[in-house]
Amino acid sequence: IQQLQQACIDLIEKPMGILSILEEECMFPKASDTTFKNKLYENHLGKSNNFSKPKPSKSAKYEPHFELHHYAGTVGYNITGWLDKNKDPLNETVVGLLQQSKEALIALLFGEPAEESAGAGAGAKK
């Protein structure tokens, strides 16, 4: 049981595991639930005994996109909205408050990026 449990944990947490692929997909503006699902299938379907594509079911409350098999049984996961939830951008109001912080480091970290002056930089011609 412990080996099966560790294999499932590795499938979720290791590099190119489910969470790693989710993080990677969040970096691409055109990523979607479908591209995320396809990457999961490419990397794990048929390669891990703990990962499978669910069989269609008319009685299911939601459509699971993949299933994980572990010691407690099989659990189906619907990935709809995972990318949006994982991005979790900072609220503009919160950023504005942090930019006005009296703590210099906080204000610096959340301040507007400094613009490069014209002509500065390695590629500038003289």
Could you provide a short overview of the structure?
With 126 residues, the protein is mainly alpha-helical. It has helices spanning 2-13, 18-26, 33-44, 82-87, 92-99, 104-110, and strands at residues 51-52, 66-70, 73-77.
Describe the fold and architecture.
- The chain is mainly α.
- It is built from 6 helices and 3 strands.
- Strands 1-2-3 form a 3-stranded antiparallel β-sheet.
- A hairpin with a 2-residue loop joins strand 2 and strand 3.
- Helix 2 packs antiparallel against helix 3 and helix 5 packs across helix 6.
- The termini are far apart.
Looking at this protein, list some descriptive labels.
43% helix; 126 residues; mainly alpha; single chain
Structural class estimated from helices and strands: mainly alpha
Coarse shape: elongated
Amount of beta strand: 5-15%
Strand order of the biggest β-sheet:
1-2-3
How are the SSEs ordered, and which strands pair?
Elements: H1 2-13, H2 18-26, H3 33-44, E1 51-52, E2 66-70, E3 73-77, H4 82-87, H5 92-99, H6 104-110
Antiparallel strand pairs: 1-2, 2-3
